[in-house]
Amino acid sequence: MRIDSRTVITGALLSGAILIYIVSLVSWRQGALFLVGIGAGLILYHAAFGFTSAWRDMISKGRGAGLRAQMIMLAVTAIIFLPLLADGQLWGMELRGSVRPLSVSVIVGAFLFGVGMQLGGGCASGTLFTAGGGNMRMVITLVAFIVGSALGAYHLPAWQAAPGFGPVSLLDQFGFGSALVISLVLFASVWLGSAFVERRRHGALEKNATCFAAGSWLRGPWPLVVGAIGLAGVNIATLTLAGRPWGVTSGFALWGSKAGAALGFDVVAWPYWQGPTASAALEASVFSDITSVMNFGIILGALMAAGFAGRFAPIWRVPWGSLLAAIAGGLLLGYGARIAYGCNIGAYFSGISSSSLHGWLWFVAALVGNGLGAKLRPAFRLSN
Predict the structure, then answer these.
(1) CA-CA distance, 133 to 40, in Å (whole number)?
(2) Computed from CA positions of residues 226, 230, 231, 233, in that sequence, does the dihedral angle turn out positive or negative?
(3) 10-residue block means of pLDDT along the chain (384 residues)?
(4) CA–CA dist 345, 348 (Å, integer)
(5) 216 burial class (0-12, 13-18, 19+ CB within 10 angstroms)?
(6) Cα angle at 95 between 93 and 101, to 5 degrees?
């Protein structure tokens, strides 16, 4: 396919204008995070690095290449994350991991998120990059995702009162060396387990490209392992620039709450927005919010990637079954992510890379939810 120059130029001009605005309004560091978001959009689109399809392939087909690529991504990230987090600072900036409680809200929220992944057709990062790439169904999922996130923020205090335990960090419990060894053993166990299942079901592992084909660096597709290492780089860059790991869905809660306030809802009175940092974020421009800026970058990065690949061609007609699934899935994604302290990026990717046990709890509950979601897909005339 030929490069869609119009789409690439439009994306580049929008990105340049937003970058200049962010740097002048906030800081160079915020601008750098916007560029990291653009890089994430390019990687996600060209590598087709989806968490949703990878888990569905494992559950429905017994194919685990996508899940194994995620384990490589987690291992690379943890190897860099843990010594940095153990030191606690970088160039005078405090570093903190994504460590959250082990609670009923994490289990329920991750399960709902998992169901939503399969009905909505994407995860948090997946919804952003596919919407940016011109998928109109995923634009609908994104809108519902934002609404669900705001509703989850409104209900979060009630879920925080649910039974649970405090945060558990392997790094805090055992120190850097032991935490890294335990993490790598867990990654290897999932990798080997998925390979065992695939070999038992299909006789051999599916062959996947491990290097670029001629010209594919610009137009795709990229090998899964390249996408895995690229996303590890995105999260590492986020930690070193923002002082905390990559997240996605807190930005959706902010967007939804701002929209609610504009429609007359008393959002300021919600406990979720009562703290000084939260209330300041609600009052400030969305371009002052790190997560929002990176999300905008993902959308624009995917838009330009679709242009480079010559595949930006929005289809406006969405079948009714698919439309209903997108709305229901988006609402579950947003609500689940908020009450589970994050999504496939903030809780799973960043949580596990930070050695937080809540990330593993989230993974197990979300995987179960994906199983149910995959079974529900045919009811909406969606294939597995």
Answers:
(1) 13
(2) positive
(3) 88 98 97 98 89 92 94 98 96 96 97 97 91 91 98 96 95 96 98 96 83 62 90 98 97 97 95 93 96 97 92 85 96 98 96 98 97 95 85
(4) 6
(5) middle
(6) 150
Cα distances (Å, whole numbers) of residue 363 to 124, 144, 256:
14, 23, 26
Write the single-letter amino acid at 70: Q
Nearest-CA neighbor of 8 among 231, 241, 257, 301? 301
Alpha helices in 164-207 (DSSP H): 170-174, 176-202
Nearest by Cα to 238 from 337, 133, 333, 346? 346
Strand, coil or helix: what is 64? Answer: coil
- Check whether the bond before 221 is cis (ω within 30° of 0): yes
Q: What tens digit of pLDDT does each residue of 2-17 get?
A: 888 999 999 999 999 9
Locate 300 and state its tokens.
Answer: 């624009």
CB atoms within 10 A of CB 20: 11
The greatest distance separating any two alpha carbons of the chain, rounded to the nearest whole angstrom, comes to 59
pTM over 0.90: yes
